[in-house]
Structures are given as C-alpha cells and as structure tokens.
Amino acid sequence: MKYEVAYISRSGNTEKLAHGIADCLPSEDTFVTDLAVDEITDKADIYLIGFGLKNNTIPLKIMDVLEKLEDKIIIFFATAPVIPTEEHTKEVERRLEPFMPDECDYRGLFLCPGQVSEESFNKIRTVLEQNPGNEQAEMVYNIYNSINGHPDENDIADACRFVRKKLEIIQA
Ligand SMILES: Cc1cc2nc3c(=O)[nH]c(=O)nc-3n(C[C@H](O)[C@H](O)[C@H](O)COP(=O)(O)O)c2cc1C
User: Fold this and answer.
1) What is the pTM of this model?
2) Residue having the nearest C-alpha atom to atom 8 of ligand 1
C-alpha cells in the first residue's frame, strides 16, 4: 500500500501534524505533499488529507482535492482553535460530506487543537484588558491559552494511533 499525506497549512499547525503522521507510516511507501506548492499524485492507495479550519470552514483546495480521490481510502486530519469534541468532529465531517467522492473508502477525521497566531492572541488579550469581566472575551482567551503550543508531541502520538487504528496497521 502507498500512502500520501497531503496538507494545506497557513501558519504551520497542520503541517506539523502532517509530518508527524508521515513519520509513523512506512517511510518507503509514504510521501508528503504540501498542497500550497504541489498537486496530489494519483499514485497512492491511501490519502491522509490535512487542513486548518478557520471558523469551521473547509479550505477550497480540499474540495478540489477530493474530486480526485475516487476509489481511494481517505482519512482527514484537521487543526482548529478549539478543544475538540465529538460533536465538533461530526460537524466538520458534515461539512465535508457534499464534497466526498461517490466511491471511496472513508475512514474518519482526526480533529486536533491548533494554536492561534501571536497576533490573534494579542488581539484577544487587548480586548480583555479593555473590557475586564467580558465573558465572551474571557472564554476565547481561555481557549486560546489552553491550546497554545498545539499540536504538540502528544497530539502527534494521538494522531498516529488514530491513523494506525483506522488503517488496521499493527505496530511492530
Ligand atoms: C493569521 C491567522 C488567522 C486566523 N484566524 C482565525 C479565525 O478567524 N477563526 C478561526 O476559527 N481560526 C483562526 N485561526 C486559527 C487557525 O485557523 C487554526 O488555529 C488552525 O490550526 C491553523 O492551521 P494551519 O496553521 O495549519 O493553517 C487563524 C490562524 C492564523 C494563523
């Protein structure tokens, strides 16, 4: 089996996860594609497709890529400024559904916290300083704070476990 890990990443969160996932797959049969630079090949059997979510929106590039994945095995991995829940994962899958090829073997989505840029962090910090006690700003600040540094090594290990399980790869 050949694996292609293809991702689109603006600030590097999904890129980090993509390389972590690629590193836990058989190296001789795995290649990585940065969709900002290259198109996917048609050479793999299994496609691991990664993207960063902005306000729960699926990047257009991912919709394009899905058109080319007829008859392939597909796993998604995504990063977002959230502490992921099952409902959130289902919501993202619901948004992907209309773009899925008619014939494919879909295995699941791994959703992972992705830190926000320093600029976004500073912006919310300023809002909070100017509006102390603002519950909405406090909530967003607390989330941003708790996902700072993600994806981290534990996220990558979780992603690898998820991928192995979905592909039924037995670890040596
Ligand atoms: C410049 C910038 C702006 C962002 N704006 C938003 C936003 O408006 N809404 C949101 O939900 N996430 C926003 N995010 C968060 C990211 O989409 C999210 O954390 C994701 O992990 C980024 O993944 P990527 O670096 O692989 O693209 C922003 C991130 C960056 C770097």
Assistant:
1) 0.94
2) 54
